[in-house]
Hints:
- The complex is a heterodimer of chains A (102) and B (172).
- With 102 residues, chain A is mainly α.
- Helix content of chain A is 76%, strand content 0%.
- Chain A has helices spanning 4-24, 28-53, 59-89.
- In chain A, helix 1 (4-24) runs antiparallel to helix 2 (28-53).
- In chain B, 24% of the residues are buried.
- Helix content of chain B is 73%, strand content 0%.
- The longest helix of chain B has 26 residues, at 54-79.
- Chain B is globular and about 60 Å long.
- Chain B has helices at residues 5-26, 30-50, 54-79, 94-117, 132-140, 145-167.
- Chain B has 172 residues and is mainly alpha-helical.
- At the A-B interface, helix 1, helix 2 and helix 3 of A face helix 1, helix 2, helix 3, helix 4 and helix 5 of B.
Amino acid sequence: xxxxxxxxxxxxxxxxxxxxxxxxxRNAVAVLMSVELMLNAVNINFVAINKFIQxxxxxxxxxxxxxxxxxxAEVAVGxxxxxxxxxxxxxxxxxxxNLMKW
Amino acid sequence: xxxxxxxxxxxxxxxxxxxxxxxxxxxxNIVHSALFLILAxxxxxxxxxxxxxxxxxxxxxxxxxxxxxxxxxxxxxxxxDVEAGQTxxxxxxxxxxxxxxxxxxxxxxxxxxxxxxxxxxxFLGPRPVSDAVGALAELMLGNYxxxxxxxxxxxxxxxxGAIILARGVEEK
Lengths: 102, 172
């Protein structure tokens, strides 16, 4: 029988994969994609806890929608930043993004 | 211990999601990563349907699998200049690589063990609402109207900011 802990475990695994991607990738777009995976894991947690602990309202789903909104805004701004930096440095390798380092 | 069709569907969607997420992180071609990402989003949408959150599943398909993946693929097409097989390499520094793997593994194992040993599986709250969309609408335009309006303004600002950032500066 699938219960709350199975959903939470799935979210944990997804979040772990996202954390690994953020650390290990050197392409800025790949890092953004890993962040998206982590946000999706959080959404699974919201909806699963909403269903199993307090299903008489939908606040968990509401917050998942807010997370989706913030994720959409983050992707739009992040990709615009990457394109803008690419125009300047001709690279999307995170190791080359050291303009603000001293 | 009975094994129902629902359990089988959960196992299939969860396996699809995790496999696609691993594909995102481990493919060497960034276009393959993006396509795996769409698959992972669809898997998460399946999980939402499984959790009786049909509206959220549709939002997931529309916003994530539709809009965000198209945005990501467009950005990849705009910034890719080397051969595709080399576009998504791992960080060359071994320390960062191993450190990231260590952080991710310890996070997943410790959280997973805590979840597994907890009594969370015993929870089963009151009966779910049948009209989730109506309840969501009442919350959005009732108690959470300020957050709703803030999210709208945030989206507008993000889109305007993205246009300004991506347009670049004009050469004098």
